[in-house]
């Protein structure tokens, strides 16, 4: 078991390692990009990567406070479902309304890798292999889909 400080340090070390590993990879536009803190440039639409003690996940989260607008974003996402799954080369889980641990309601489209731990450095290559192709594919997908979400603002 790790202390809070040790756990925080390991998380920071992993994401720094991942960021350095990804830094030479350009975006779909050919630009330099911060893969760890990916910015969709659309308010309330986020690409999230998370790794914990038991699993890792990557997701598109739709976080608008207004449920009606969030539903509109989710319905717009469904219009691109085939393109998303084709670009990712796999199907993801679609959740229209979920409640996060902090009580916020969001919509989420995600993929989870069970049985891995950010606290086990031996599993970091597996985590990186999980995140890397998916965040790159999300970036490629977003190049084609972003404009339709910008119109919803």
Characterization of the model:
With about 150 residues, the chain is an alpha+beta fold. It has one domain (about 5-150). Helix content is about 45%, strand content about 20%. The protein is built from four helices and four strands, in the order αββααββα. The protein has helices at about 5-20, 65-80, 80-90, 125-150, and strands at about 45-50, 55-60, 95-100, 105-115. It has a four-stranded antiparallel β-sheet with strand order 1-2-4-3. A hairpin with a 3-residue loop joins β1 and β2. The longest helix is centred in the last third of the chain and has 27 residues, at about 125-150. The protein is globular. It starts with a helix and ends with a helix. The model has no long low-confidence stretch (mean pLDDT about 95).
The total beta strand count reads 4
Rounded to the nearest angstrom, the distance between the terminal CA atoms is 45 Å
Low-confidence stretches: none
Radius of gyration: 16 Å
Question: pLDDT average, as an integer?
Answer: 95
Silhouette: globular
| Tally of individual helices | 4
Question: What percentage of residues falls in helices of 4 or more residues?
Answer: 40-55%
Physical arrangement of strands within the biggest beta sheet: 1-2-4-3
What structural category characterises the helix and strand content? Answer: alpha+beta
Order of helical and strand elements: HEEHHEEH
């Amino acid at each position: 078991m790790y202390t809070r400080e040790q756990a925080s340090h390991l998380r920071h070390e992993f994401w720094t390692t991942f960021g350095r590993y990804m830094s030479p990879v350009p975006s779909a536009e050919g630009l330099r990009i911060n893969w760890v803190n990916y910015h969709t440039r659309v308010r309330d639409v986020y690409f999230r990567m998370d790794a914990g003690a038991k699993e890792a996940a990557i997701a598109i989260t739709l976080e608008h406070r207004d449920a009606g607008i969030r539903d509109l974003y989710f319905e717009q996402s469904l219009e691109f479902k085939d393109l998303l799954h084709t670009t990712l080369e796999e199907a993801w889980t679609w959740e229209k309304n979920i409640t996060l641990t902090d009580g916020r309601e969001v919509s989420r489209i995600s993929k989870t890798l069970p049985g891995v731990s950010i606290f086990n450095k031996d599993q970091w290559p597996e985590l990186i292999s999980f995140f890397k192709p998916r965040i790159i594919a999300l970036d490629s997908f977003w190049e084609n889909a972003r404009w339709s979400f910008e119109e919803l603002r």
